[in-house]
Design brief:
The protein is of the alpha+beta class. The chain is built from 6 helices and 4 strands, in the order βββαβααααα. The protein starts with a strand and ends in a 5-residue tail after the last helix.
Length: 173
């Protein structure tokens, strides 16, 4: 039996805040995802209490910590007017990883998944740009340099991911 941990997340998208339940499977490299509502869309809630009640009714224990916030409105804004000097590697990596979990949670064809599979070099550039203490030698810092082709690819990926997120939330535009 696999051991999953469940966490609340707060998605900001289209001017709205939605609480979702994200899980990680501690025994699987590919076991992260979001709980669905039964119609192949992500279960969303307007309050933390309603998310907790949903989980309780299904015997799911939510970890006791503040929800992680994902501002997909900021990602969408950046995708419309990208600037090479305004890439926040931590925010971008968090969004990219969550969008991967979103498309992995729902059935269907995913353009994001296809694009993601071809962008490993950009992913690792962003990853190392986060300068995680466990990965960055003391006293050093990696500041990625971006070319126009990489920016275009990143814009395409994130814009596609936000579109697919809207669909997964049941409000495609």
């Amino acid at each position: 039996m696999t051991e999953k941990q469940y966490f609340l997340c707060d998605f900001h998208l289209d001017g709205m805040s939605r609480v979702v339940i994200w899980y990680t499977d501690l025994e699987s490299d590919n076991g992260d995802g979001l709980l669905l509502d039964g119609s192949n869309t992500i279960a969303t809630f307007t309050t933390l209490d309603s998310a907790h009640n949903f989980a309780l009714a299904r015997s799911i224990a939510i970890e006791d910590q503040d929800p992680s916030v994902y501002d997909f409105d900021a990602i969408a804004r950046w995708s419309r007017t990208p600037h090479v000097n305004s890439i926040d590697c931590i925010v971008t990596l968090d969004a990219w990883n969550m969008l991967h979990d979103v498309v992995s949670s729902v059935d269907g064809v995913s353009e994001f998944r296809s694009m993601d599979a071809r962008m490993e070099d950009i992913y690792y550039k962003i990853f190392f740009g986060c300068n995680l203490a466990s990965m960055t030698p003391e006293g050093e810092q990696f500041n990625p340099k971006w070319d126009a082709e990489e920016i275009d690819a990143l814009v395409g990926l994130l814009a596609c991911g936000v579109r697919e997120l809207r669909t997964a939330l049941g409000n495609a535009q």
